[in-house]
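Input record (Table S2, row 496):
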Amino acid sequence: MFLTISTNGNEQNPATDLGFLLHKHPDNPFSVNLSYGTAHVLYPEASAERCTAALLLEVDAVALVRRGKGKGRGGAPDAALAQYVNDRPYAASSLLAVALSAVFSSAMKGQCRAKPELPDQVRPLRVEVPAVPARGGAGLVRNLFEPLGWTVTAEPVALDAEFPDWGDSRYVRLRLESETLTLAEALRHLYVLLPVLDDAKHYWVASDEVDKLLRAGDGWLPAHPEQKLITSRYLSRRWSLTREAMERLELVRLAEADDSEVEEIDNAVEEETEAEEKPTPLAVQRRDAIVAALQASGAARVLDLGCGQGQLVQALLKDPGFAEIVGVDVSMRALTIASRRLRLDRMGERQAGRVKLLQGSLAYTDKRLKGYDAAVLCEVVEHLDLPRLPALEYAVFGAARPRTVLVTTPNVEYNVRWESLPAGHSRHSDHRFEWTREEFRTWAGAVAERHGYEAEFVAVGADDPEVGAPTQMAVFTRRTETGAETASEEKEAKAA
Ligand code: SAH
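Output record (S-adenosyl-L-homocysteine complex):
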């Protein structure tokens, strides 16, 4: 099996730089024994104007069978002959991909010690492979390579040139051309996509293949429109590995969303709810009010329940008085963004020791939430269906039972003051309800009564004489056994 890579150049930028990039000198043919055959690298042409490197892989069909995964396609048990007589020696497949990575590993990583400026260079590239088994045909070949910047020519290979009536085989003669890629990118595309087209690996696919895929797919796979097919085929359709890879690709995508994008999400969220709020957005006023109420309560260990993308956790971290801050959310996606916003991976040990993000649902009691001084539900209750609210109430006030609980929620009466909000609409499409001040007070009063808390109410944002403030906050304080207002008062009362 056979693959050539060519590039053009001139006196200033000679094509023979390809030899430096590939770490194989054009004048010295190179051979190496691999477990299933021998790989050779040679240069059919090498001038300043044009240089071609050829990778030739002589497959040892017997070695392949001995290694156990070289069975005929489909691995039919009676296909004894097919174990020896098959397309493997000729067709570009996972064998060629492995050879590519074995022979050109530095080039694939974009390393070139002799000329360190070369790997980042975009240069005209042409890759030719005479026989690529293509399950999915020429159409799939194009769908795989074109989004990456390749011009694709995939000619079906006739089953037998002398008998055109027999039709085409499932092989294509492949030519890829690009002016926009580095050699390292090109090699990584081939390393992943040749086996994907072949759709039959010559070896058992273990979990380390996910790492290999993500490494080789770095920079292009997370955004590829055929990502799912590529991942599934590359991992030999092993479902659990495919799922793992897809999840990790999603994380990469989120991580690659740089800070500006996180800020954009931020702003979008704020704009959505606080369209007219300038200069201090309501979300900021809300956080300030919460931080002030927490400080007044003397809480050191705080839960942010339904923490979303972590803005409040971030604000709380700024006050060293909050010794432990735990963000809880049901949404993994939100937590991933939160963790990136907080730069959890780059935080010093001491700072990182103060903050934790937990995935969990507030509709269930959760032992992890016990023993904290305070819990915040900032703009969360209205995201639950009303019938689920008693479950949240019990999980927070009945089971976790922190001394202080802060709940904020929109005041629906204020909605008439949002110019951009059509009458009768709630502020956010995911709000299951929005309460009047009266409704909120009634709910909060009943919760306090059921669980032994006192409730006070705070208006957050411009307090309109007619409709009240845009955000309403309830501050719940747990009654102590003795009726004392604070823990220290209680201690004194008990001692007395
Ligand atoms: N407190 C944040 C986010 C508010 S949006 C802020 O003020 O910016 C509501 C959040 O509650 C979302 O992140 C949503 O994922 C979370 N949430 C909704 N239902 C939940 C549940 N049952 N358990 C945990 N989190 C929930």
